[in-house]
């Protein structure tokens, strides 16, 4: 971790290293979970008949929701804590601050963009549970499969948002463009050595 004020031969405090590790782990775990839903789970759901597909989608959604919220909050809290303890002029601070804002952005994205589709899919599941022919005469773009397909495409946007946040947190951890000096002798690395 490139924390301002620490020389190359000094270790940052353990709390910062732990927060950084937890932030990276939570954000990449969320990225992997979201990608798995989009590329593995939903394609299998789409193979099922509409009544079962609606039920399976709802089950995946209800199980994934607390996971997504928890990982988002943990990752944002950790990257925010790390940023708070860094020099605001440093690249790691800027990257961690951006990750702190980007990672939990999936929550308002979900509410503003995905919620209308979620509501339709939950209603489809309820209607199809009562009557398997509930989709007869429904516009093609409003069928269970079309709604799940549209939801998956928007879920991929949510996955990309998480991916950007995870990449920023990792980049911040790997950036080592700090200056260290002892007495009159200074040691510079990265872009800092250019002046």
From TrEMBL:
Compartment(s) of residence: Membrane
InterPro entries linked: Anthrone_oxy (IPR013901)
Residues passing through the membrane, by range: 17-46, 67-84, 96-114, 155-174
Pfam families: Anthrone_oxy (PF08592)
Domain of life: Eukaryota
Broad class of where this protein is predominantly found: membrane
Record carries keyword Cell membrane: no
Gene Ontology cellular component terms for the protein in this record: membrane
Record keyword Membrane present: yes
Signal peptide (UniProt feature, chain positions): none
Keywords: Membrane, Transmembrane, Transmembrane helix
Membrane topology summary: Multi-pass membrane protein
Family: Belongs to the anthrone oxygenase family.
PANTHER family in alphabetical order: ANTHRONE OXYGENASE ENCC, DUF1772-DOMAIN-CONTAINING PROTEIN
Name assigned to this protein: DUF1772-domain-containing protein
